[in-house]
Every structure is written in C-alpha cells, then in structure tokens.
Design brief:
19% helix; Immunoglobulin-like; alpha+beta; 197 residues
Length: 197
C-alpha cells in the first residue's frame, strides 16, 4: 500500500516538471516607478548669523536667523508634573518618524529621543524631558553647541549664556534664580542704611 502511494507521488511530481508553458521572464522595474518614499538628506543650515530670541510668552527661546522661521526651540512646560524642558527641531518631518537627536557642547554629549509631532499645522521633531534630567546640562554652559538630526543636517550654535539661564529659570519653576547669599546681603544693606525722618 505504501509503495503504491509512493509511486503515485513520483508520477505527480514528474507531471509537474513537464509543464508545456515556459517559465515567465523576470521583469525589470525602474526604481523611480517603485512606490516607495525616497529618503532625502538635507544640507546643514547656515547659522553663522543666527541668534537666540525669547518668545512672546517668555516660556521658550528660539534659535534662528533674523526674519526666518526658527531652527531650534527650547520650551519650558510649567504645567507638567514634573516640569519638562521641550526641545524642538523645526525641520521637515513625516508622521511616525523618530530619531536620536544628539547635542555636543559644554564638555558633554547628550542624546535625546525625538518623535515627530503635529503642532499648529507644522510637523516637527520634539523631545520632552523632566527638567531635572542631567542630560540637559549640555545647555548649562556658555560654550558652542552642535545639534545633529540625522538627515536634517547639523546646527552650529555659537556660545551664549541664554540657554543656560533659560534652563535655570525652568528648573526654578519659572521664577528668577536667586543666589544663596542675595537675601543676606539685602537684609544687611537695609539694616545699615540711615532712615531719614
């Protein structure tokens, strides 16, 4: 019985190999015709004349060239718990994209995970971190910074005290940072001044 089944299987396989139709020729398709999204690498923007400005609300600072859209924004979300520093790279983005967004400067290297978000009709790259995250110390000094988003170029940011002061302000919950000895000095001055009467 088994030998008969084996013989039927062999005959079936032999019949399959004797097809009268020739095998189809392979087809060539130009890559331009393929339905796929082309990856585009953008050049690094010219930031030789770029500078930091404070937003109208005072809760963000923007880096960019005069009379142009910002290239980078640092925002402080005081309503979140814990308070967040929001890093925004204004560059072409598509829904669902994500990337590592490294910053180098002030003696450190920090890598922020960035997602694409739709905000006010603009797709942009955004990272959100608790304001106490030590990686944010990359903004704490006054040295030059570089910020590289893969495929969107590198931002060269001249050294400035503004990012560090903004980070301190955000970490202080939106209040001006007061030096530890400021209260003592003020009290001593007030007590030592003559009172006119």
């Amino acid at each position: 019985m088994q030998s008969k089944a084996f013989l039927i299987l062999l005959l079936t396989l032999a019949a399959c190999g004797q097809s009268s139709e020739p095998a189809p020729e392979p087809q060539r398709i130009a890559l331009e015709a393929a339905d796929s999204r082309e990856a585009i690498a953008y050049p690094s923007p010219d930031t030789s004349d770029a500078f930091w400005t404070v937003s109208e609300t005072g809760q963000a600072i923007r880096f960019g060239n005069a009379d142009e859209s910002p290239l980078l924004t640092l925002g402080c979300n005081l309503q979140s718990t814990p308070i967040e520093l929001v890093i925004v790279r204004h560059a072409d983005a598509l829904p669902g994209q994500s990337a590592l967004f490294p910053f180098v400067g002030n003696g450190m290297r920090s890598r922020f995970f960035a997602d694409t978000k739709l905000v006010d009709g603009e797709w942009r790259w955004e990272s959100r971190l608790p304001v106490g995250d030590p990686q944010l110390d990359v903004f704490a000094g006054t040295r030059d910074l570089t910020a590289t988003l893969p495929g969107r170029g590198m931002l060269e940011i001249k050294g400035s005290r503004i990012p560090g002061e903004f980070l301190d302000w955000c970490r202080a919950g939106g209040r001006p940072a007061v030096p530890d000895n400021a209260t003592d000095e003020t009290d001593e001055t007030a007590e030592g001044e003559p009172v006119e009467g």
